[in-house]
Amino acid sequence: MAEVIRMPKMSDTMEEGVIASWLVKEGDKVKSGDILAEVETDKATMELESYEDGTLLHIGVKEKESVPVDGVIAIIGEEGEDIGTLLKEAQNGIKDNGVDKKEEKKETSGNEDIEEIDASDVNATLITMPKMSDTMTEGTIASWLKKEGDQVQAGDILAEVETDKATMELEAYEEGTLLYVGVKEGDAVAVDGVLAIVGEKGADFEKLLKAHQSKQKSGVAGEEKDATPATPAEKSEKKDTIDSKVSGATEGGRVKASPLAKKMAEEKGYDISKIKGSGDNGRIVKKDVEGYTPTTEAVQQIAENKGTSFNIPQIVGEESYDEVNVSQMRKTIGKRLSESKFTAPHFYITMEINMDKAIEARKSMNEFSPVKISFNDLVIKAVAAALRQHPKVNSSWLGDKIRYNKHIHIGVAVAVDEGLLVPVVRFADNKSLSHISAEVKQLAEKAHTKKLQPEDWEGNTFTISNLGMFGVEEFTAIINPPDACILAVGGIKETAVVKNGQLVPGNVMKVTLSSDHRVVDGALGAAFLQTLKGLLENPVRILV
């Protein structure tokens, strides 16, 4: 019997996945354990494994297209098997009992008010039972490989889970402490049931559990009420009705046009009598003016009136465009930065730094350094040293508390084809310039070849974005959560500067600090930039 392959939920925050590439095609024979496709999630690119033997009868998602969690990806069964009914049921969301999932929610949801619990301030993540196959409704914990209190890294195996298809490994996608284990060995738990919680040591995971339980009880209580939105035709009809009430002229030989159309035509210099109306009884409305193109004769007449003469060439062109589906990376960038921009009150401080001595120091260093040191490497090292002197800048807003990080992990923005990645240079204050240079080059290469792992981009406490190499002199950057600050670095420009009362040539670089005003005040941000300026204008101080 054919089986539907659905998009599994790989992490608690995953809402959809993108099929990066199919490794098989319709009609191919597959075995349990074969890799069907590569899937881009909000965390990483992962492999989609088959849990069935048979023939790939149907592929429901094209490459580069997204599909929500539990959405139909493919169907595997016997060669020649009729899958029409199964495909229809899968697409309509019909379950074994024949009850539509939305209808079922409506029947079970009551009118009782359920208090919602805000657990956004809890620095922890729920680990839930993923759905590994279309028929899976629950899984059994065969054994736990970690216990409460253990430290876990992204990629660690937490437990072995028995499904209705096979015994599989439950992988961690978050770093932290295993705060809570909700299922004993040998016990079963339903799909999306809570298995464990991983997060910061001491985090209030009980609040997170209560919030999850409250969300489950509320069901579809928050579903939007029945409402029939107006169709495009109805909207158009309404618009025409409104337009028809705007009388622009009488029948006495004058042009019939709405007041707005007359005003637009006058502003554009059009002869409104030459515009064809599409409104009632040929009345000219706004869209007619917008879509009107003056004839060559009219333009020529205007030119002659001004005492000039020229021929207007006839230009023939074709309007065209390409539409590309938004990648998971771009969606995540948009979501995170929108949240940052509209939740964190940004303020900006810009400062000029004289880079004459930094240029000399870099030239001298590169005569002995095993790797070429860039100006960006100097900025990273100087920022790390300045953060050590101003630890309150190296912080994060957590809602009801502020975290002051004692370690310094510098995120370095790297532009790739799909968007922007921010790999992290860990403990940057303890590393030499040559070490930082080599590490940044390695991380940038991994970013461009899509080989970055979660540990490469997680844990930043401060971020640097440098557009100087593109000729940008000055810009502002959006704070990269969970940081409280980000430094935008412009290019080095040769200009006139004043030294000892004399105007002499010099090299200046502008930097702009974007800060979360909930955490960092203006005076603190200015003091940090003053320290950074001193370090870059006298680079030998960085090495002390």
Number of strands: 26
Compute the separation of the termini in Å.
71 Å
- State the helix count: 13
How is the main sheet built? 6 strands, mixed
Q: Please tell me how large the radius of gyration is.
A: 31 Å
What is the typical, i.e. mean, pLDDT? 81
The strand order across the widest sheet is 17-26-25-24-20-23
Overall structural class, as computed from helix and strand content, comes to alpha+beta
Percent strand: 25-35%
Which outline best applies? globular
Q: Low-confidence spans: pLDDT under 50, at least 5 residues?
A: 94-112, 220-252
Percent in helix: 25-40%
Describe this structure in words.
- There is one protein chain.
- With 544 residues, the protein is of the alpha+beta class.
- The protein contains 13 helices and 26 strands.
- Strands 17-26-25-24-20-23 form a 6-stranded mixed sheet.
- Helix 10 (375-389) crosses helix 11 (433-448) and helix 10 packs across helix 13 (522-537).
- The longest helix has 16 residues, at 328-343.
- Residues 94-112 and 220-252 have low confidence and may be disordered.
Sum up the structure in keywords.
544 residues, alpha+beta, six-stranded mixed sheet, four-stranded antiparallel sheet, 13 helices, 26 strands, 27% helix
Show the helix and strand layout.
Layout: E1 3-6, E2 16-22, E3 29-30, E4 35-40, E5 45-49, E6 54-59, E7 66-68, E8 72-77, H1 84-92, H2 101-108, E9 124-128, E10 138-144, E11 151-152, E12 157-162, E13 167-171, E14 176-181, E15 188-190, E16 194-199, H3 205-218, H4 232-244, H5 259-268, H6 286-290, H7 296-305, H8 328-343, E17 346-354, H9 356-365, H10 375-389, E18 395-397, E19 402-404, E20 410-412, E21 414-416, E22 419-421, E23 424-425, H11 433-448, H12 454-457, E24 462-466, E25 485-499, E26 502-516, H13 522-537
Parallel strand pairs: 20-24, 24-25
Antiparallel strand pairs: 1-8, 2-4, 2-7, 3-6, 4-5, 6-8, 9-16, 10-12, 10-15, 11-14, 12-13, 14-16, 17-26, 18-19, 20-23, 21-22, 25-26
Helix pairs in contact: 10-11, 10-13
GO cellular component, one term: pyruvate dehydrogenase complex
GO molecular function, one term: dihydrolipoyllysine-residue acetyltransferase activity
Region (Disordered): 213-257
